[in-house]
UniProtKB/TrEMBL annotation, chain A:
<comment type="similarity">
    <text>Belongs to the leucine-binding protein family.</text>
</comment>
<keyword id="KW-0813">Transport</keyword>
<keyword id="KW-0732">Signal</keyword>
<feature type="domain" description="Leucine-binding protein">
    <location>
        <begin position="29"/>
        <end position="364"/>
    </location>
</feature>
<dbReference type="GO" id="GO:0006865">
    <property type="term" value="P:amino acid transport"/>
</dbReference>
<dbReference type="Pfam" id="PF13458">
    <property type="entry name" value="Peripla_BP_6"/>
</dbReference>
<dbReference type="InterPro" id="IPR028081">
    <property type="entry name" value="Leu-bd"/>
</dbReference>
TrEMBL record, chain B:
<keyword id="KW-1133">Transmembrane helix</keyword>
<feature type="transmembrane region" description="Helical">
    <location>
        <begin position="133"/>
        <end position="153"/>
    </location>
</feature>
<feature type="transmembrane region" description="Helical">
    <location>
        <begin position="33"/>
        <end position="52"/>
    </location>
</feature>
<keyword id="KW-0812">Transmembrane</keyword>
<dbReference type="GO" id="GO:0015658">
    <property type="term" value="F:branched-chain amino acid transmembrane transporter activity"/>
</dbReference>
<keyword id="KW-0472">Membrane</keyword>
<dbReference type="Pfam" id="PF02653">
    <property type="entry name" value="BPD_transp_2"/>
</dbReference>
UniProtKB/TrEMBL annotation, chain C:
<feature type="transmembrane region" description="Helical">
    <location>
        <begin position="188"/>
        <end position="209"/>
    </location>
</feature>
<keyword id="KW-0029">Amino-acid transport</keyword>
<comment type="similarity">
    <text>Belongs to the binding-protein-dependent transport system permease family. LivHM subfamily.</text>
</comment>
<feature type="transmembrane region" description="Helical">
    <location>
        <begin position="215"/>
        <end position="234"/>
    </location>
</feature>
<feature type="transmembrane region" description="Helical">
    <location>
        <begin position="59"/>
        <end position="80"/>
    </location>
</feature>
<feature type="transmembrane region" description="Helical">
    <location>
        <begin position="265"/>
        <end position="284"/>
    </location>
</feature>
<keyword id="KW-0472">Membrane</keyword>
Amino acid sequence: MMKRRTFLASGAATLAAWRAFAQTQSHIVGTLFPMSGSNAEFGTLYTNAVQLALDHITADRMLKSPIELRSQDSQATPQGGAVGMTRLATVDKASYVLLGFTGVSKAAAPIGGRNKVVMINGGGVGPDLATLSPYFVNIIPLANKEVTAILPWLAKEGLKRVALIYVDDPLGQSINQEFAAGLPKQGGTLVGAFSVPPTQQQFGAIAARVRDVKPDAVYFATPIGTQLSQMAKQLRDNGITQQFVTYSVGNLPSIVAQPESEGMIFTGQAADWTSNEPKIKRFVEGWRTKYKAEPVTYALNYYNGLMLFAMLAQGLERAGTPVTGETLLAELMRVRTFQLAGGEVTFDEHASASSAIQISRVHGGRSEKIG
Amino acid sequence: MTAYLLNLATLATIFGILAASLNVLIGYAGIFSVAHAVFFGVGAYAGAQVALNLVPDVLLASLAGGLLSGLLSLCLALPALRVRGEYFVAASLGLQMLAVTVFSEAHSLTGGHGGLVGIPPASLLGIDVSSPWRFLAVCVGALTLSLVSIAILMRGGFGRGLMAIRDSESAAEALGKNVPALKTIAVAIGCSLAGVAGTLFAFQLAFINVESFTLEQSVLLMAMVIIGGAGTLLGPLVGTLLLLLLPAVLSFIPFIPATEIGTVQQLVYGLAMTLLMIFRPAGLAAPSTGRR
Amino acid sequence: MLILQLLASGIQTGVLYGLTAAGFALIFGATRVFHVAHGATFVLAGYAFVLGAQAGLPWPVSCLLALVVAIGFGLFMDAFVYRPIQRHEGAFFTVFVAAFGASLVVQNLIQFCVGRGSVSVSTPLTRASEILPGLYVAPVFWIAIGVAVALFALVTMFLDRTDAGVALRGLSENPELLRAFGLSSRRLSALAFGIGSAMTVPGAILTAATSGIEPAAGAHVVLISLAAAVVGGIGSLRGAALAGLLLGITENLIIAVLDTQWSEAAGFLVLFAFILFRPSGLFGQAVRR
């Protein structure tokens, strides 16, 4: 038994040593995304974004030493997150890790903090992510800010009665609270809040409940893209014709392309694909040529996540400081405001980003900005 | 590197305890439970609550976790006394699905999907054991203790009684064995050990939520026992090492593209399960001409 | 009206559950194989249909494709996974693990080849219209019921009226006796897997049309089939079908009184209660202990 374990261990050690030798002097950046299971669509998207950023960074010769990417599958579970993060921090010696998903983030944050690895979250939007660890950086505005942005729009459109379908996690709970508190202030009401388990796939019965409360608009708060597309389709199929609203999850390509999503409103970081600002233009065009598809804001977050690394490391390289998690974080907190693709991003004292939020509408299989 | 290996070793040890505890049910008592992750979870939540609200003492938390899991194991013992085989599998399945919902909904006890964050570093009788080496030592100690006690129990009259029931319940009854008592105790022992493993898991991760206690986890545990060899002392450990370390080893293969690594891991993993069952149905640790 | 609406959606879910569960029960009854990869059959059939439809095949051809794929996979599992294990006198749990491994392989192969999101076919048949004030029903509701009833009748007729069908039912009771009469239990078990797998096809196709299907969808299907087979009394086709229907209705009706996240758990509570208090199921004989 022990023999087997030591054999495996020494085998792994040799491999790692060989790798370390082969690639001295490069910056190691890790990704910890779900690459299998029902959330794997996100993982693929995020990885593509990171690779596009890497292409651009290499093309611009931003850094003296090359960036080396290491990927671990988080399976979107805490255990996967903890194992993957330990692996990235201690075996691959990554100084900077891009990750997503609330459960993964919570399990990875203490490990990253202990090993002084900067962690960039561009996907999980639970409000409890703000204060996980000093090394935990949120490059995405957290979801409660998205609700604040949609409330005035609902009032303006005269959509007073809102029904909420949410997954009962910190994200869903915070959206529920924001609505329950925010709607009455503008004369609206939350007429129903229906929580569903994250594994639910049949929404015919929920459609009946939703119809029963006669809402003007239905808000979806699920972190799972597949589930959102099933909700939208089944509610439409069951005769719910009211306005659909959701947060940035609505920006997944599979959802925008679905005919039942027509007219759906979603909030998200200001990301105007038609803008002429050179950075965003380069991202959008790069994405279209490389992946033959329309980009989404999630992808932009992780593209910016690696871009941010390049900017930080560039500053450090110029100053002659070694690039480690510690120095990267110090540099981030020193500069605070960055010109990333899509506009200026400012980090607060918890290293959480705030940027403008825009409202978009799905129309004809594409998303268009409406406010 | 050391920290990574220590982390893997600690996880493997914890899962070793789990697989060994499930083996008491599957291998010795013939109770095919697919709800073992429930008791793993109960122990983890109970241990975490003790650590968060009272003292972060491993021993105390493990006792609490083990005790609560042992008590709740009655939910599993009840159907085990009434039905066997496929019926029992279905009952344990029902229990597993119910428990996942309860874990996600009992916010005050489990934190719901958000889970319990910030479980404090472990100590043992006032000594800090939170460093990776020390915590591994604690887990190895727990594993050794579990294995030794299982070995002793199964060699004695209790174990013989259990195995008699496994092989033929009516024969055991005719021999004057107290079948309900033996079964209930076996379930309680297996589930308490799972609870202890849960507490250790909570300390190791410092964060737990329902995603670690799902049906997939139960099936994985069951696979560890069956692949290693049910009813053998070392079989569950072999199964644990194989299934837990296989993905880790696969992740060192350099030529798999980053976006496909998870899928390939799962693919190999599933294939290994199927092929092993076709060619080594009695498990890896069993002698090749197995009893079963 | 809420109750009526929930009942309607419960029936639609339930008939498909019932049909799939009956397939599972047929396989289990005839071969004693706990066919956990039944869910994989379901997913494969669904994907075959969607890919066929996306490739521009007319829908009957796509349906046929789904049927061929489902039966093919069922026969494959029987011949290359279950039979070798049973030859070693493997315990039923060995079969369980092997089948679970096979389901993982199927799920990840689909992810690898087709993609990870859910796929669906869009059809006007899933659009509901108001047939009574406040009661919305889509054409697919009637299709589901019609297809399920017809197919179920066909299968029961086959089992009752033909020699092979009667032999199939006999297989579960006494395989030795059948062998003595010169019937091949291998061919019969292949027949059971073929029919049983075919019974997943309507559910798979209609799921692809109503809610979309994803690589990991099989797990839920197996859980429901298994629960229904047990509640109905293991081996009883009629029992499994009825129990599937009841599970679907319970899952939906419960939403009228409880919070929505409890709906799946409610079905399993029913299962758990049945095993404790009426282990023989709805139609089963006394449990063999």
